[in-house]
Amino acid sequence: MKFFIDTANLTEIKEAYDLGVLDGVTTNPSLMAKEGIRGDENVRNHYKAICDIVDDKVSAEVIATDFEGIVKEGKELAKIDDKIVVKVPMIKDGIKAIKYFSSEGIRTNCTLVFSAGQAILAAKAGASYLSPFIGRLDDIAFDGLDLIGQIVHIYQNYGFETEVLAASIRHTMHLIKCAELGADVVTCPLKVITGLLNHPLTDKGLAQFLADHAKANS
Ligand code: G3P
């Protein structure tokens, strides 16, 4: 199972990378805006700065929504660094662009996926990664985790190579359930990754070990 961090914040990316468990980064236009990154050159420089921190797989999302625009923008993003994965929205022209990128050897992440039908289309088009949004489905009273299970099952049926990248993960149980369901990748905020560390019995046990050691050595 791969861990991606879902942020454009360089400090958080560095902290997750230094933990030694990070396999990649996902961003989106909202996350870039949150960091105050605006203007084509600044956006490119910021993606390069992210690529310089991690080993591989940095999803950079296109803004264009027409085939020609997505292809042009995606090619420019891919030129920034070999680590870039072009993130393309699940729309008709997006599917056509994913097919094109696939034939050109450019990796893609199909985003804003909310149904099994969309997942099948993206895999048929040759997407490298598929991003179903769990939390946003939960927000409107659909079960996001059910969708992850359904897509993993369908992809296994046909041996699709597209990796299921569970996104919009809000808490540690989302991540753990995704692991049970067989998602290939999870992308989540830093607090979800570090949240996996926590257990009160670990804290209590460590305090006891240290106290016993101190007593024996006093
Ligand atoms: O990057 C896509 C996705 O992970 C967004 O998550 O929390 O804004 O629904 P969220």
TrEMBL record:
EC number, UniProt record: 2.2.1.2
Enzyme class at the top of the EC tree: transferase
GO cellular component terms given for this protein: cytoplasm
GO molecular function per UniProt: aldehyde-lyase activity; transaldolase activity
Reactions catalysed: D-sedoheptulose 7-phosphate + D-glyceraldehyde 3-phosphate = D-erythrose 4-phosphate + beta-D-fructose 6-phosphate
Source domain of life: Bacteria
Pathway in which the depicted protein is active: Carbohydrate degradation; pentose phosphate pathway; D-glyceraldehyde 3-phosphate and beta-D-fructose 6-phosphate from D-ribose 5-phosphate and D-xylulose 5-phosphate (non-oxidative stage): step 2/3
Active site (catalytic residues): K87 (schiff-base intermediate with substrate)
GO biological process per UniProt: carbohydrate metabolic process; ketone catabolic process; pentose-phosphate shunt
CDD domains assigned to the protein according to its UniProt record, in alphabetical order: Transaldolase_FSA (cd00956)
Subcellular location: Cytoplasm
InterPro entries: Aldolase_TIM, TAL/FSA, Transaldolase_3B, Transaldolase_3B/F6P_aldolase, Transaldolase_AS, TSA/FSA_arc/bac
Entry keywords, A to Z: Cytoplasm, Pentose shunt, Schiff base, Transferase
HAMAP family: Transaldolase_3b
Function: Transaldolase is important for the balance of metabolites in the pentose-phosphate pathway.
PANTHER family: FRUCTOSE-6-PHOSPHATE ALDOLASE 1-RELATED, TRANSALDOLASE
Family indicated by similarity: Belongs to the transaldolase family. Type 3B subfamily.
UniProt protein name: Probable transaldolase
Organism encoding this protein: Cyclobacterium xiamenense
Gene this chain is encoded by: tal
